[in-house]
Specification:
single chain; alpha/beta; 5-stranded mixed β-sheet; 3-stranded antiparallel β-sheet; 8 strands; binds zinc ion
Length: 313
Amino acid sequence: MEPIITINNLIDDAKCYQVVRMLRWPDGQVICPLCESTQIDKHGHHNTEPKRQRYFCNSCTTYFDDLSSTIFAGRHQPLQNWILCLYFMGLNLSNLQIAHELDLNEDDIQQMATQLREGINDKKPTPKLEGSVESDEIYIVAGHKGNPEAVRNKGRKGRRNRLKGARGRGTLAKEKPPILGLIQRGGDIALKMLENVKQKTIEPIIRTTIAPGTLIYTDEYDIFGRLTEWGYQHKTVCHSKGEFARDEDGDGFCEVHVNTIEGFWSLLRSWLRPHRGISQEKLPLYLGFFEFVHNVRRRGKALLGSLLNLILN
Ligand SMILES: [Zn+2]
């Protein structure tokens, strides 16, 4: 029988540490993570990981290494597995698929992926939108602490089947949480899971994300009814009257529409599709991850550098 060769066994541990050093200290000057001093001496290597460089800070007299004060410090899995996990997440593989590729336990990958998603969410910049912005909301099926396997194993009806029956405007309680999407035409997207669809819930999100005075296009849904009061220009397209785009300024272009955000919703739905049974607790992490991926405009191997750079700095 041929041996199973997994990608993580082909990856060079030394190169992984090199990449981390390059991203943390781009000009080659090692900086103490505690006191930011540059008076640093090399101090041998990690006991069990020979490629992991250790350092001594002459200013605050502490020891640290390549991974100290990063998300990868004090982890059980080798660095190469973390980097590969992040790479596969950028390719939008599910946790199960990643576990198969790396020949690792799915629970371990689940934990690693969650920690990486949290890391990306903690560090990602808050999008700042201006110019022409479209705003809309959708409802995504996500249960509480979703674990469809466990539910099925207990002989109950699978959660996903049950949830397909839910109709109407979603709420957290209904397991169809609302997602607010704000997109600048030709620019960035901002995504937020909402507790409920009320004006007072969306007001602070809109104010921190969209520059005052910006022109915002929405449908006629009443949560957007006070945008003018909040200091924005506001135009609505009347979907209920069968209208999808309108030329208001008479230049021949139907500029009043929300087609950009609607196109984005189908991108988001395809992105979420491989990940079955995302819980409401985890959904914001997936949304934040996709927000970053979308806004950085990179895919595959080009994306890995952006993800690592964000998470390490
Ligand atoms: Zn120091």
